[in-house]
Amino acid sequence: MKNQICCDGIQRRDFLKIGALAGAGFALPDYYSAANSEPKSSKTKSAIYIRLAGGPSHMDSFDMKPNAPDTHRGEFKEIKTNIPGTRISEHLPKMAKCADKYSILRGVSHSLAAHRLGSEYLMTGNRPLPSLKYPTYGAVISKELKNAVDIPQSVAIPKGPTGPTGFLGLEYGPLETGASPKPGEPMDIRGLSLSNGLTIEDIDRRNNLVKRYDTAFGDFANEDKILSGMDEFSQKAYQMMRSNNTREAFDLTKESSSIVNMFGDSSFSQSCLLATRLIESGVRLVSIQLGGWDTHRDNFSRLKDNNLPNLDDGVAGLLRALTAKRLLETTSVFITGEFGRTPKINPRGGRDHYPRAMFCLLAGGGMNGGQLIGQSDSKGEGPESRIITPDDVAATFYNSLGIDHTKEYHTPTGRPVMIVRDGKVIPELT
Asked: What is the pLDDT of residues 179-189, one digit of tens each?
């Protein structure tokens, strides 16, 4: 007897699996996108990737130009940090006190001024190609680093990028929280939280039904990769739902007051707090998004009143908490936008897209902190001499995780592709 295939290509027994998970909040798209397969290595590192969506102004944050002309300089003053000679924006006072824990890369440069293209570049370490979708950091780390079966490999707060797995396949996608955490509240995570009166016993009964169906009708050959990934994911999802370890990792009420007090109440700050718990539980990659950096108008009021204080609270708390938990040395932290912003202030009091000069921050993971690496020119218009590319930053990030960035993967068509095609590890950080 041949296993029944529905009009959308899903086998009948897979509907049973979807049904067993749907009551816990897994929708059909999640069933596809969260599929998991066995990684090939088991290194003992984790990572946190913070995306500053929109492109933050380098000149108003980590690459101040107090001697630039009035047309460029901006309204903010620079302040000292705990590293002699390193100065950053006055609206980052908490990060100034922990500058020894991270390194600032200045004069990072590329040529892609569109949000989508710049984001793809900075989230993969590869300049985008029309014919190829490179996997993001989360997909590569999920493939290369192994964790416990009941803990997700990768978590995105609140959501990950479109097409995050590239050519690697859907099984390496992140678990998306769908929302940001709130102070003192456990998170209701789609797929992990039991809703509508559903119990673990209900999930067990539905899972047993799936097993009986498989026993009766057997596993049929010629199943494609998507269906195989679905099958693998259904078991992983089932294990995660039954795992107290996983549910507690998302419960901020379980965190000690000494750690909680390191963070502010904003959604970004609470996301950073959640990231420390997830890393502590065994998640390999946590990605966090902080938007609002596309400041074509009112750049200075938006940065002063919102963006920079939020960044300051969250990142300073993150670095302090990872240090207190003794996780910073084994956790690589990468903070970046898709590009910088124009050094010259526009007539609307804003700054526009500018990829020729931007900053990145790297911390933890055995990388040397407290450094200024690279330099932009006196007006912040481009690298002074040395050019650091997104490829170089990506190669360095992977290197800190014990991942060889020159390793080759193969696309579904058999094309060999290196993890990072052109990057070189930044020697000051190793």
From this structure: 999 998 888 77
Q: What does 118-129 look like in DSSP terms, one character per residue?
A: HHHHHHHSS--B
Q: Containing domain of residue 236, as a range?
A: 1-33+190-244
Any alpha helices (H) in 23-151, and if so which ranges? 28-33, 70-73, 93-96, 115-124, 137-144
Token pair listed for 368:
């040397």
Backbone angles phi, psi at 388, to 5 degrees: -105, 125
Provide the CATH number for the domain around residue 300.
3.40.720.10
Rounded Cα distance between 65 and 128, Å, is 31
Q: Which residues pair with 52 in a beta bridge?
A: 290
Q: Which residue has the tokens 């014919």?
A: 131
Residue 92 and residue 160 share a domain? yes
Q: What is the DSSP letter of 422?
A: S
Q: Is the peptide bond before 416 cis (omega within 30 degrees of 0)?
A: no
Q: Which of 202, 219, 244 lies at the terminal end of a domain, its last residue?
A: 244
One domain for residues 147 and 202: no
Q: Cα dist. 115→55, 111, 325, 338, 340 in Å?
A: 8, 12, 35, 7, 11
Whether residues 280 and 416 fall in one domain: yes
Quick one: how many helices (H) and strands (E) in the chain?
14, 14
Please give the DSSP secondary-structure letter assigned to residue 97.
T
How many C-beta neighbours within 10 Å does residue 68 have? 18
212 and 67 within one domain? no
CA 390-406-119 angle, 5° bins: 25
112 & 240 share domain: no
pTM, 2 dp: 0.82
Q: Are 355 and 56 in contact (CB under 8 A)?
A: no
Residues 227, 170 share a domain: no
Q: Does 305 lie in the same domain as 204?
A: no
* 108 backbone dihedrals φ, ψ, rounded to 5°: -65, 135
Nearest alpha-carbon partner for 280 in 318, 312, 311, 314:
318
Judge contact between 324 and 277, C-beta under 8 A.
no
Q: Structurally, how many domains does the chain consist of?
A: 2
Helix (H, G, I), strand (E, B) or coil at 334: strand
Instruction: For residue range 372-414, list pLDDT tens digits in order.
Output: 999 999 999 999 999 999 999 999 999 999 999 999 999 999 9
The structure tokens 């199943």 sit at: 223
